User: Fold this.
Amino acid sequence: MQEKQSISADERYEEGKEMLSAEDRLGIIKGLRKKAGLETANFTTHQFLEHKENNPSPYGVTLGIEIEIPEESVLPTGSRSWSREKKDEFLNEERKKYEETEKMGVPRDTDQFWEFANLPAHNPETLAREAEALIGMELIDKKYAKFPLHVTIGGITFTHCPAKKREDALVLIRAMDATGWCTDGDRLTRLYHDKESNWMVKSRSGILERDTNENFLADKNGQIKTALEFRTPQLQSLFGLDRYLRSVYYLGSALRAYQNIDEKDQISKNLSKIWEKFSKECVTIFEQYGLESPRKWWEIDFLNPNEDSPFKDLAKLLDKAKNDTKSRKAQFVHDIRLLIIQTRSEVKEIIEKDREEKYTKD
Assistant:
């Protein structure tokens, strides 16, 4: 495989970079898994990743992730007493282990000690498998469980759809926040104790819109060339990442149909109706538990930490739900997760049907 050059996330999105072929993408995963000592036999058959990457659903979104590795997750216990020079010397040596992944096909962005900038894929399983391998290589410490995570969904938008449908992207990110799969109270209020490096940077309400002509953000006919980056998640566990990616993929596909509905296409109309129902039920659940509507722009003023904020309210709820699994707050998380799981199953049944039938025949 040809060695990949390091390229920043902004350069990737602004200059354009085609998605890798299924063969190249599976080659990366196999190489990473082999390096990590993970089982490689038949794993692609089980997930039929190659088939999915070669035959993307015309109704599906694309997904890309960035996993930030802060230096505090790499430094050993007792390093707080080290001088800056000693820390830098240690980190420079550790960085050599990470540099190997660039040669294996996982680009790096420039933030912090290291940032894995996994290229966009047609399927959530592809990215989850890569993350699993990086964890297996011990480049992502499972004990740290607070790695800033950015998830980019290609095909959904604010500016290229009817105005009344723009706020539905807010519903998607707030619903995903509410699951707790890839965030917690500390993450949602991070900017109070880290004003220079937090999810509000470059974004509003945790979302950054990317408007581009990249091929990998377009559908098979090159029609949709927009993307939204969700910046509030963090990598807490592989379990949570897998569920987050699968959910945002299928729900994002329904949202995409809703924002860009093709009245002549029955599948597009069906997906749009699924999203509309999900959005209404999600808003109802939030309001039943005293939270701000997820259709609104939630704001947070880190200059005034004593001010009320809907992000603070959700943060407290998530922490309470985690600490008391029988509380009413825990019931809120359960209700949101159940709604998401049920909805993504409906979407999956529609957009995966043709691919699964073709795969079985082949």
